[in-house]
């Protein structure tokens, strides 16, 4: 899925001084270049998730991706630009997967259930996504503020949820006046807090909150909370 996602790195305001390859330096082209860029992003995602923006090392990313540092800077003009590309890749992956849920084709109540289950499952299966967001929030979202791609992705998401809410209101399953943005933040937040604080919560309550039965209970709780809020 992620391999089909392409990122535009041109015409975006630079977040830090750029280092570039010398004119005439050899570099892959076409499909080979796409593979190199994707490999860099895959390695960088793990490095940023593990060490954060401040602790991540560009030379380590380049070495593990099998490219030299100058090549990396050619494709992603700075460390900040590379971090933004990683964030864009992560958001594009989750938004693309949401489109595959076919929520427009489902009964409104079942569509909400599927969206909640998917959001929880994605966060659970991609812990690096949460750590990347934590890192970006430490930097007050300054990288994402530069991205036109992410804003467009979320506009389509809100349109999808808006249609779902309207169908539910028309059928009598949902109340009217629900803000699609607030609803999605609630759905995402119910899982995000649980997973990002799983260690401290497990210690406080003396339970392994990542055990299968507690994960299942959390998903069911989230679903009932959201559907309970939406009732007329």
How do the strands and helices of this protein lay out in sequence?
Layout: H1 30-55, H2 58-65, H3 69-75, H4 79-99, H5 108-125, H6 127-138, H7 148-171, H8 180-196, H9 198-205, H10 212-230
Written description of the protein model:
The protein is mostly helical. It folds into 2 domains: 2-83, Arc Repressor Mutant, subunit A (Orthogonal Bundle), CATH 1.10.10; 86-230, Orthogonal Bundle (Tetracycline Repressor, domain 2). 69% of the residues lie in helices and 0% in strands. It contains 10 helices and no strands. It is globular and about 60 Å long. Residues 1-25 have low confidence and may be disordered.
Write down the overall mean pLDDT. 88
Q: Structural class, from helix and strand content?
A: mainly alpha
Structure annotation, total helices: 10
Number of domains: 2
The succession of helices and strands, N to C, reads HHHHHHHHHH
Radius of gyration (CA) equals 20 Å
Strand residue percentage: under 5%
Distance between the termini: 37 Å
Question: Can you tag this structure with a few keywords?
Answer:
Arc Repressor Mutant, subunit A, 2 domains, Tetracycline Repressor, domain 2, 232 residues, globular, mainly alpha
